[in-house]
Amino acid sequence: xxxxxxxxxxxxxxxxxxxxxxxxxxxxxxxxxxxxxxxxxxxxxxxxxxxxxxxxxxxxxxxxxxxxxxxxxxxxxxxxxxxxxxxxxxxxxxxxxxxxxxxxxxxxxxxxxxxxxxxxxxxxxxxxxxxxxxxxxxxxxxxxxxxxxxxxxxxxxxxxxxxxxxxxxxxxxxxxxxxxxxxxxxxxxxxxxxxxxxxxxxxxxxxxxxxxxxxxxxxxxxxxxxxxxxxxxxxxxxxxxxxxxxxxxxxxxx
Length: 254
Fold this sequence. Notes:
Blueprint (H helix, E strand, L loop, with lengths): L4 E2 L4 E2 L4 E2 L4 E2 L4 E2 L3 E3 L4 E2 L4 E4 L13 E4 L4 E2 L4 E3 L7 E4 L4 E2 L4 E2 L4 E2 L4 E2 L4 E2 L4 E2 L4 E2 L4 E2 L4 E2 L4 E2 L4 E2 L7 E4 L3 E5 L1 H6 L4 H15 L5 H10 L6 H9 L12 H9 L1
Parallel strand pairs: 1-4, 2-5, 3-6, 4-7, 5-8, 6-9, 7-10, 8-11, 9-12, 10-13, 11-14, 12-15, 13-16, 14-17, 15-18, 16-19, 17-20, 18-21, 19-22, 20-23, 22-24
Antiparallel strand pairs: 24-25
């Protein structure tokens, strides 16, 4: 059992739950609505479990924030609790939230997500495993960022970003995150399937959800990654970002 280390100037409210080995630095605030897994580190002036920025929120509701093991929360990060009764804002394990980033109410971040300085997530955003979001990027409420995607610095994202994609500027998909795929150690055959799936939904003219459903129904995709990419298009409540034709053709020729 590793002891918890709380700086004398930090505020940990009664009712907060801290796992083994948590470190709470000077002037950090962990409210009674927060549950921290083992080894979570909260740096100075971060606030975990604050009330949501929702004009209609009932502060008496039992909602909270859950932080996965070994996640690091840097200076001035804010993470707001959920708005729905018994709901949770969820941060996965091994995430790294850099200085000044914000996670709005009811967000759900999977494991190993990295948010650079000043990234802003509005409410109800879902971020897949292994996503990297560059500094100053802003993500609109209810948007989804698929597993393994990368969002460029200062990007403005108001649509869903498919898995393993690179997004930049205003909802612009510029290709697959090939570097990320290589770092995952995926077999070449899987990478080729992902490229094929990317072309199937981005090159033809038509509704992306219909194109993805047709590709999935074709039976041509065996890997979990390629099938997951195509299945992503069948869910969500926002439109999905699409690659410009030039970027899609370039990806097909890579």
